[in-house]
Structures are given as C-alpha cells and as structure tokens.
Amino acid sequence: HSVVRNGLFCLETAADEKENHVYTKALMAYAFALAGKEEKRKALLSSLEKEAVKKDGSVHWQRPGKEPEVDLPFYRYRAPSAEVEMTAYVLLAHLTTQPAPSQEELSFASLIAKWISGQQNPNGGFSSTQ
C-alpha cells in the first residue's frame, strides 16, 4: 500500500540520521522488524547494543543524561516507564525476525527479558508504560 510504503521510506530516511535518540532507535528497530526490513533492523540493533547498559547479567537502555541509579543496600531500583518501554521495544525487535531469531539473538534477548522482569511491581505489572 502506498501509505505504508511512504511511511517506511520516511523511517528509512530518519534511520540514516546520525543523531537519533535511543528511544527513537528502539521504535524504528521494531518497526523495521515488523516490515521485514532485516538490514535496517540489524543496523539499528547493532547501534543500540553499543548504547546498552549491561549490569548484573542483564541488559537495558536508558535515556542519555539520566542520573545514575542509586546503589544502596536493600534498595530495589525501579526504572522510569520510558526506559522499560524502550527496552521492551528492543526485545521485540530482537524476537521479531524471519526466519526465527538466531541462538545468539535469543541469548541476548534473555538478558533483556531478565532486566524487564526485574522491573515488575509487587502486583506483577509495571510503572505506567503503554
């Protein structure tokens, strides 16, 4: 459909920008995964991996300029909803590929899922993500 084609063209043009925000990259990676644009998906995921926060056997993304999390005993840090959301989009981008994700992608995705599951509140939900 021409509207979808034009929308993808717009996203492809935006993806080539040098200064894309990490949240924007996460959304675009998932959009390209859904559209079957494998090269763009992989390029964005590669760029995102360089910006990933790898800590305690898990992986997540946070907004640039954000203050570091407090490291206190018995204190469980809960990330802001935007960070849970963008990390979830990166996870979806890793898992939405044809053919099925590689073993390497699944291993990396499990590290992302570990972080996301650690962000659940006591009721099993998350902060106000969509």
Proportion of residues in extended strands: under 5%
The helix tally amounts to: 5
Number of strands: 2
What is the residue-averaged pLDDT?
86
Encode the helix/strand succession as letters: HHHEEHH
Terminus-to-terminus distance: 28 Å
Shape: globular
Query: Uncertain runs with pLDDT below 50, 5 residues or more?
Result: none
Radius of gyration computed on alpha carbons: 16 Å
State the strand order across the main sheet.
1-2
The helix content is 55-70%
Question: Biggest sheet, open or closed, and with what strands and sense?
Answer: 2 strands, antiparallel
Structural class: mainly alpha
Organism: Eudyptula minor (Little blue penguin)
Domain Alpha-macroglobulin-like TED: 2-130
InterPro entries: A2M/Complement_sys, Alpha-macroglobulin_TED, Terpenoid_cyclase/PrenylTrfase
Protein name: Pregnancy zone protein
Annotate the secondary structure layout:
Layout (H helix, E strand, L loop, with lengths): L1 H14 L6 H14 L2 H14 L1 E3 L2 E3 L20 H15 L7 H15 L13
Antiparallel strand pairs: 1-2
Protein name: Pregnancy zone protein
Pfam family, one: TED_complement
InterPro entries: A2M/Complement_sys (IPR050473), Alpha-macroglobulin_TED (IPR011626), Terpenoid_cyclase/PrenylTrfase (IPR008930)
Structural key phrases:
mainly alpha; 5% strand; 130 residues; two-stranded antiparallel ribbon
Condensed summary:
InterPro entries: A2M/Complement_sys, Alpha-macroglobulin_TED, Terpenoid_cyclase/PrenylTrfase. Helices cover 55% and strands 5% of the residues.
